[in-house]
Design brief:
- The structure holds two protein chains of two kinds.
- By secondary structure, chain A is α/β, with parallel strands linked by helices.
- In chain A, about 45% of the residues lie in helices and about 15% in strands.
- Chain A has 13 helices and 14 strands.
- In chain A, the strands form three sheets. A seven-stranded mixed sheet of chain A has the order 7-6-8-9-10-13-14, with helices on both faces. A five-stranded parallel sheet of chain A has the order 2-1-3-4-5, sandwiched between helices. In chain A, strands 11-12 form a two-stranded antiparallel ribbon.
- In chain A, helix 2 runs parallel beside helix 12, helix 6 packs across helix 7 and helix 12 crosses helix 13.
- Chain B has one domain: ABC transporter involved in vitamin B12 uptake, BtuC.
- In chain B, helix 2 crosses helix 8.
- In chain B, strands 1-2 form a two-stranded antiparallel ribbon.
- The chains are: A alpha/beta, B mainly alpha.
- The interface between A and B is large, with 41 and 39 residues.
Chain lengths: ~425, ~290
C-alpha cells in the first residue's frame, strides 16, 4: 500500500513537472490561480476581490501610461520579463469552506497548471489552501488573510502582504492609550469575535498585546458568524456595560449586531470594528448611517490625484461600475501587483524562481495601492512594511483619523451610533 | 428573574414565533405529500427579495410587500409542483430529495445572478420604532413578524383541521386513490398545499427581511433552523412546528445568554437529539 502510494505520488509529481515545463515553454500566457469566496456568506467581499484581480490583470496586459511611471508591470503588452506573456486568471470559488478551498487549489495546480496562487480572503481557507500549494511547491500569496499562525508554519512558498493581527493589535493599544491620556474611560474593554480562524486568532493576539500594555479585557464573547440571532450577545454587553467594544466580525453578523444594538438601545463610548465585515461596501452602504462615529481599521486610504492608489481607484471604478477600491479590494489589488512584479522579475514561470523573486521584492511607499510603507518580505513570508490606519464613520463614509500623519479629519468621541 | 433575563426570554419567544412562521410551509408540504422540500430556505430567500425589491423600486413597506410576497411565492410553489414535484414524486425517494435540492441550487444561483452577492437590508423605520413595555424592549418589526407568525401558523392549523377543504387535503394525504374515488382531485389538492405553503413562506420572508439581512445564501442559514424546527415538532404537524419554534427560540436565547453564544447550537441540538431519541416522530407528529 505504502509503496503503491509512493509510486502514484512519484508519477503525479513527474506529470506535474512535465506540466510546469510545458507551460514554461509556451510563454504566451501565465496562469495565476485566483481563489475567493464567490458564494457563501462572504461572497460579497469575494466578488470585490475578484474584480480587483481582474483590474490587476488588465493593468499588466493592456497597461496604463500614468501607472507606468511608478510600476514596471504597468507598461502594457504583458510581462516584459517574459517576452510579453499575458496574465491569464483562473478563477475558482472557495465557497466559504476550507475543504472547497483546498479542493479548488488542488484542481488549479494539478489540472490548470497555474504558476502561482492568490487568495483566499478567509484565514481558515488560506490555511488549508496554502498547505496544498506548499506541498506542490507553488507560491501562494494572500493579500488579506490576517490570522497570525499562517506565517508561523515554516512554509517556503507562502507570502503575505497585509499587516497581521499583531500589527493592528499594537495600533489599537496605542490608540486606546492615547485616548486614555486624553481623558476617555477605557477601563473595561469587551472583545466580541466570530469563532473561526480569523476571529479566534485576532482576538487572542489583541488580548495578549493589551495584557502586556496594561489594558484590561473585561469580557470576551465568541459567537458563530452564521447565527440567526445576536440578541443574547448584545444583552450580555448591555449588562456589563464596557467602555470600549471591539468587534471582529464578517458582514452578515456585522449587520445583525448593528441592527440589534439599535433595537436594544445600547452603545459603548468607543466602538471599534476590526475591518472585515464592517468595511464591506454593502455594509457601509446599508448600515453606515446607523454607526456614526464607529472606528475601523483600514489599509486603503485614497491618495492624492495622480498617486498609484488614485489611478487604481479610477480603473477599479470603471470595472465595478461605481464602487471604488475599499480596504479588501485595495489590499487585493496590491497583492496581485506584488505577485505580477515578482513573476516579471523572475523572467520565468518556474515556481521556484517566482518564489525567489518574491523573496527579493522591494517596493517603495510611492508604488503602493494600499496604505503600506512598502513591500519587503521577511524569512517567514510576512511583509515587514505593512501598516494600518484608523478610520471613523462620518455621515455614512469612513474618513482617516489616526495616526495624525494619515488623518484627513479629527477624531470625534464618544460613539454616536444612530 | 432579572430584567435582562426576562428580556432574553421575550427575545427568544419572538424569535421562536418567526422560526415557526418560516417552518410551517415546510411541515405542511411534508404532511400533505411526504415530500421534503429542500428548496424551502430559498423560497424564504425569494420572499425576502420580494420585500427588498418592493422597497427599492416602489418604496413600499411590509403592508405592500407581505401580500405580494405571499402571492409571488405561492405562484412559485404551484409552478414547482406542476413542473417538478409532480413528476419526481413518481420516482424513487432519492429523486425527490435531489430534485428539490436541485431546485434550491437553481433558485440560489439565479438570485446571485439577478440580485448580485451583496447584502441588502431594509431601513428599520419601515415598521415603526421599538417600544418599552414593563421594562422590556420590543422591536416593532420583530413583534409584527412574531404576531403574524403565530397568526399564520394557527390559521394553517385551523384550515387543515376545521374546514372542508382541509379535510379534503388531509384525505388526499392519507390515501390519494380513495380520495379520488370520493370525488376529490388529488393533484388539485396537492397544488393547493403548495400554494398555501408558498404563501406562508412568502409572508415569512417579507417579514424577516424587515429585521434581517437579505442575500442569496440567507436561505441556507434559515433552512437549517426550519428543518430542526419541523423534525422537532413532528413532520407534518403545523401546531408542532409552532411549539417547536417557540421552544427552540427560547432555549437558544437562554443558552446563548447564560452559557455563551458558541454553545447555543450544542444545547439546541442535544435537546433535539434527545427528543428524537424518545419520540422519533417529534413532539406532535403522527407515529
Amino acid at each position: 500500500m505504502g509503496k503503491l502510494t509512493r509510486r502514484v505520488t512519484a508519477a503525479g509529481a513527474a506529470l506535474l513537472a512535465l506540466g510546469v515545463a510545458g507551460s514554461a515553454m509556451a510563454q504566451d500566457t501565465v496562469k495565476i490561480g485566483v481563489l475567493y469566496p464567490l458564494s457563501g456568506n462572504a461572497a460579497s467581499a469575494g466578488n470585490y476581490s475578484k474584480m480587483a484581480m481582474e483590474v490587476g490583470a488588465d493593468i499588466v496586459n493592456t497597461g496604463d501610461p500614468e501607472l507606468a511611471k511608478f510600476l514596471a508591470v504597468a507598461k502594457g503588452g504583458g510581462l516584459s520579463g517574459l517576452k510579453g506573456a499575458k496574465i491569464q486568471l483562473v478563477i475558482a470559488d472557495n465557497q466559504g469552506t476550507p475543504a472547497a478551498g483546498q479542493n479548488q487549489t488542488l484542481r488549479l495546480i494539478t489540472q490548470e497548471k497555474v504558476v502561482a496562487m492568490i487568495g483566499a480572503y478567509q484565514s481558515g481557507i488560506t490555511l488549508t489552501a496554502s498547505a496544498i500549494s506548499e506541498k506542490y511547491g507553488i507560491p501562494f500569496l494572500t493579500p488579506e488573510s490576517v490570522a497570525a499562525d499562517l506565517t508561523e508554519r515554516g512554509f517556503k512558498f507562502f507570502f503575505r502582504t497585509t499587516p497581521v493581527a499583531a500589527d493592528f493589535a499594537r495600533a489599537y493599544s496605542t490608540f486606546l492609550k492615547e485616548q486614555k491620556a486624553a481623558g476617555q474611560k477605557v477601563n473595561a474593554i469587551a472583545l466580541v469575535h466570530e469563532n473561526t480562524e480569523y476571529g479566534n486568532s485576532v482576538s487572542n493576539v489583541i488580548a495578549d498585546v493589551f495584557g502586556k500594555d496594561g489594558l484590561s479585557i473585561s469580557q470576551k464573547i465568541s459567537y458563530s458568524a452564521n447565527s440567526t440571532d445576536v440578541q443574547p450577545q448584545v444583552l450580555q454587553l448591555k449588562e456589563k456595560n464596557p467602555d470600549v467594544v471591539i468587534f471582529i466580525s464578517y458582514t452578515s453578523d456585522a449587520i445583525l449586531y448593528t441592527k440589534t444594538m439599535k433595537e436594544l438601545n445600547w452603545k459603548p463610548a468607543i466602538l471599534i470594528a476590526d475591518d472585515a465585515g464592517f468595511n464591506d461596501p454593502a455594509y457601509v452602504k446599508s448600515m453606515g448611517s446607523q454607526v456614526e462615529g464607529l472606528i475601523s481599521r483600514t489599509s486603503f486610504a485614497l491618495g492624492k490625484p495622480g498617486s498609484v492608489s488614485a489611478i487604481c481607484d479610477a480603473l477599479y471604478k470603471k470595472k465595478s461600475g461605481g464602487d471604488g477600491l475599499d480596504d479588501t479590494s485595495g489590499r487585493g489589488l496590491q497583492g496581485f501587483l506584488v505577485l505580477a512584479d515578482a513573476i516579471n522579475r523572475a523572467g520565468s514561470t518556474d515556481p521556484a524562481k517566482i518564489r525567489d523573486a518574491l523573496m527579493a521584492t522591494d517596493l517603495k511607499k510611492d508604488q503602493m495601492v494600499a496604505g503600506y510603507n512598502g513591500v519587503k518580505f521577511d524569512a517567514k513570508g510576512q511583509n515587514t512594511l505593512a501598516s494600518s490606519i484608523a478610520t471613523q464613520m462620518r455621515g455614512g463614509q469612513y474618513v482617516a483619523v489616526w495616526p495624525k500623519a494619515n488623518a484627513t479629519a479629527d477624531l470625534v468621541l464618544p460613539y454616536k451610533g444612530w | 428573574m432579572s430584567m435582562t433575563l426576562l428580556q432574553v426570554v421575550v427575545s427568544g419567544l419572538l424569535l421562536g414565533a418567526v422560526y415557526a412562521l418560516f417552518s410551517s410551509g415546510l411541515t405542511l408540504i411534508w404532511g400533505m405529500m411526504n415530500v421534503v422540500n429542500f428548496a424551502h430556505g430559498d423560497f424564504v430567500m425569494l420572499g425576502m427579495y420580494t420585500a427588498v425589491v418592493i422597497w427599492t423600486a416602489l418604496g413600499g413597506g411590509p403592508w405592500a410587500s407581505t401580500p405580494l410576497a405571499a402571492i409571488a411565492i405561492a405562484t412559485l410553489g404551484v409552478a414547482s409542483y406542476f413542473f417538478l414535484v409532480r413528476h419526481i414524486m413518481r420516482g424513487p425517494m432519492l429523486a425527490q430529495i435531489l430534485g428539490t435540492f436541485g431546485l434550491a441550487l437553481f433558485l440560489r444561483y439565479a438570485a446571485f445572478w439577478v440580485f448580485g452577492a451583496n447584502f441588502k437590508t431594509l431601513p428599520d423605520t419601515l415598521v415603526g420604532h421599538s417600544f418599552v413595555l414593563a421594562g422590556i424592549r420590543f422591536e416593532g418589526s420583530r413583534v409584527l413578524a412574531g404576531a403574524v407568525g403565530l397568526g399564520v401558523t394557527l390559521a394553517l392549523h385551523l384550515i387543515l383541521t376545521r374546514t372542508a377543504i382541509g379535510s379534503r387535503m388531509l384525505a388526499v394525504s392519507e390515501d390519494a386513490t380513495a380520495a379520488q374515488l370520493m370525488g376529490i382531485r388529488p393533484q388539485r389538492m396537492q397544488a393547493l398545499a403548495w400554494a398555501l405553503a408558498g404563501a406562508a413562506t412568502g409572508i415569512a420572508g417579507a417579514l424577516i427581511a424587515t429585521f434581517f439581512y437579505t442575500s442569496p445564501t440567507v436561505g441556507e442559514t434559515l433552512a437549517i433552523v426550519a428543518f430542526v424546527t419541523v423534525s422537532f415538532g413532528g413532520f407534518g404537524s403545523v401546531l408542532g412546528a409552532l411549539v417547536a419554534g417557540l421552544v427552540i427560540g427560547v432555549v437558544e436565547s437562554l443558552s446563548a445568554y447564560l452559557i455563551g453564544p458558541v454553545y447555543k447550537d450544542v444545547v439546541v441540538y442535544v435537546m433535539f437529539v434527545l427528543v428524537l431519541w424518545f419520540r422519533p416522530q417529534g413532539l406532535m407528529g403522527k407515529s
